[in-house]
Amino acid sequence: MKSQFDLESTSHATDQAVTTNRIEQKKATTRRRFFIRRTGGVKVSAAVILSLAATLMLGTFAMAAAQFNPTQNGVIYSCYNARNGTGLRLVDPANQNGACKKGEQQLTWNQVGPKGDTGPQGLKGDTGLQGPKGDTGPQGLQGATGAQGPKGDTGAQGPKGDKGDTGADGSATINYVKTSSTIPGLVAQEMRAYCPAGKMPISGGYMISMNQNLQTNLRISANLPVSDANGNYWRVIILNFNDPNQPNTSANVVTYAVCQALPAGVAPTA
Fold first, then answer.
1. What is the tens place of the pLDDT at every residue in 2-48?
2. How far apart are CA 17 and CA 79, in angstroms?
3. Is residue 185 helix, strand or coil?
4. Residues 187-197: b if buried by 16+ CB within 10 A, e if exposed
5. Who contacts 219 (Cβ-Cβ below 8 Å, separation ≥6)?
6. Which SS3 state, helix, strand or coil, does residue 224 take?
7. What is the pLDDT of residue 35?
8. Measured between alpha carbons, how far is 11 from 91 in angstroms, rounded to an integer?
9. Phi, psi (5° rounding) for residue 242?
10. Cβ contacts of residue 90 below 8 Å, gap of 6+?
11. Contact in structure between 213 and 195 (CB atoms under 8 Å)
12. Between residues 46 and 167, the one the model is more confident about
């Protein structure tokens, strides 16, 4: 049988244990509340924690995919535990061991997303600095000749020139010579008008006296200056095709030459 002292001691020990337990529970509650306050005072649900964990896991797998590159046609393949959603791992379908294991579910996603819409036109940038001068290029090909331009206006009258020196006396250097001949019908005849010695013909010709109707039957085969061993002269050859049995069929011809003295040191040409 316990004494009064033993009962009081037991009751006191029990009260002390209860008090100690309450103190420990209060400390734990305080620690939990302190943790919640440090996270912003918002209760964090299990769904949010799982979402954050999945995001970190996907980020980690994205980094691994960039190195492992288990892709086909831009698709990333992975397997995860279909029962509890854990154990996500990358697989390579091209590898013989790349299939999902028993109890795993395949999960795929695109390595590159779809092309986004074209953004708006950006602002015009500032003008850049002037670049250095480039090297001189090679000589280009010659261009085609241009079209003929229009005729220009007539220029102004130029000033009067100086008076020239007085020339030699023409009468002393020029002579006019002639010779006459009669050419019967059906005859070809040569006529010569000789210049004086030391002179040559600069012009010449002939004159015919005959009925105009009969002159149509005359032919001139030569009418030119000549220089040969016989001298310098004007030569004319006429062919008379008129009938000599008809009256007035002979042609009266005068051959003439205009002669000029040869310049010093110049010989007549044959």
1. 444 343 444 444 445 445 555 555 544 444 433 333 333 334 344 43
2. 52
3. coil
4. eeeebbbbbee
5. 238, 239, 241
6. strand
7. 33
8. 66
9. -75, 155
10. 61, 64, 65, 68, 70, 76, 77, 78
11. no
12. 167
